[in-house]
Fold this sequence. Notes:
This protein is α/β, with parallel strands linked by helices. Helix content is 29%, strand content 20%. Residues 1-6 have low confidence and may be disordered.
Amino acid sequence: MTNHNTSPYSHLLLLAAVLALVSVASAFGPTSRLDLQKIMREERNYMQKKVIDISHKYVPDLPAYDSKSGLGNFIKLKTSIKLGDLYNFSVFKLTTHSGTHVDAPGHFNETLFELGYDVVSLHLQTLNGPVLVVDTPRNKNITAEVMRSLNIPRGVKRVLFRTSNTDRRLMYKKEFDSSYSAFTSDGAEYLAQNTDIKLVGVDYLSVAISPKDELLKVHQHLLNSKDIIPVEGLNLNDAVPGVYTIHCLPLRLVHGDGSPTRCILFQ
Ligand SMILES: [Zn+2]
């Protein structure tokens, strides 16, 4: 039996419900004209920007820290179409500090490592945003004196240091070269105490010069702060000094003391 016992307001309520449903459907349904305009505007913005890839390609001859033989054959097909398998499927093995990569606070500090300061703990806000690319004086390491001379203003949070390593094309030489240019302990201490820099990019495999005590101290000055992220092994060939937007996205490796990362600059 049909229930005819409806109130005079029931039609109005029904109409309101239908209108509510329609508005929900349009919010989640096909893209509105406004959304489309926004997308097209953003698309035009992005097309005008130049993208510079500042990551190195992973190739067998890419140098590895303290090694004569580079990365070697780090990738291998496990199944292969050529050999009759249905698909190509590879396995690769790299250290967490291979090629262009980031260091996590736990890299040189066991307490921080055990507290979970791995690459997952790194802030995406630090890894992405406005960045300054600077040329450092050639044939000098990044000392406190060099840092002072660069005169990087307070408020600058991300800096990529382009050194003689780029001119010398060290990242293209398979054999590790310990004569690379990088931070000395007083340079790192200066950065941590007198600047607002939280993302420190360098153009060879370590942010620190190679003598062991310096290697340790530089990393401690930067990493023990827990909010400074070194990005090492950057490809700065095409990044002339200036202001860009950087995007670095390391892998979310739980317990990773470092991770390979793709880094790009938008101009
Ligand atoms: Zn590293």
